[in-house]
Design goal:
about 220 residues, mainly alpha, Rossmann fold, two-stranded parallel sheet, 7 strands
Length: about 220
């Protein structure tokens, strides 16, 4: 008898607790319902109103991104443009004979080109007496009043004389001998020496020899013509 009672107690002890299991499932379902989703049920599809709002948010995001991109690109473009203008328009560009004559002579093949180049360079440009003398000589062939027009540009401040030959005879002689095979003009040698004095590589010229000339031994010119 005692043995039978013992077996019954063991059977009751090992029987699964259905109530506890069901209560656990109930709590789990309650938690999921609190988030609007029931276990085992598919997620409800958004209605027309939800889809419309999602589309509006997407369009708004794309528009904002486009505006930011446009502002960024515009600011970068303006910065690059202003920096380029400052670099081109800074005073002190060396002035050679060719552009000076072309600017004053409307029949010159390079007249339009010279107008554009002078417009890109803020005055005063740096010049020398040898360039002025060459320009006056060439302009007299075009117009008897041509030399006066050359001098008038200096008076108006378009260019200034930034080099005195009588202070640099030895330097000019060295340059004339160095580039004798080009052949180099005195005006060219004066501009090379002027570049060395003022640390100025930019030169407004139509003369391709300035691609070969070097100032301060091996420094290249930056030809603007």
């Amino acid at each position: 008898m005692n043995h039978v009672l013992h077996l019954r107690r063991e059977a009751l002890r090992t029987r699964p607790r259905r109530e506890g299991r069901s209560s656990t499932v109930g709590r789990s379902e309650a938690r999921h319902w609190s988030h609007g989703i029931r276990v085992g049920s598919p997620r409800p599809a958004p209605g027309r109103e939800g889809a419309r709002r999602a589309a509006q948010r997407a369009r708004s995001c794309r528009a904002e991104c486009g505006q930011v991109h446009a502002r960024t690109a515009g600011s970068l473009h303006e910065h690059a443009t202003s920096r380029r203008i400052r670099r081109m328009n800074r005073p002190g560009v060396l002035l050679d004979t060719g552009p000076l004559v072309a600017l004053l002579s409307k029949n010159d093949a390079g007249h339009t080109r010279a107008e554009r180049l002078f417009a890109d360079c803020e005055p005063p440009l740096r010049c020398c007496e040898a360039v002025v003398a060459e320009a006056c000589f060439l302009m007299r062939k075009v117009d008897p009043a041509g030399p006066a027009e050359v001098v008038a540009l200096g008076r108006k401040g378009v260019y200034e004389i930034s080099f005195a030959l009588d202070e640099h005879w030895a330097n000019i002689e060295v340059l004339l001998r160095k580039y004798a095979n080009r052949p180099i003009a005195v005006a060219d040698a004066c501009l090379i020496r002027c570049a060395e004095m003022h640390e100025e590589p930019r030169v407004l010229t139509f003369d391709s020899d300035f691609q070969v000339y070097r100032w301060s031994r091996n420094r290249k010119f930056r030809v603007l013509g």
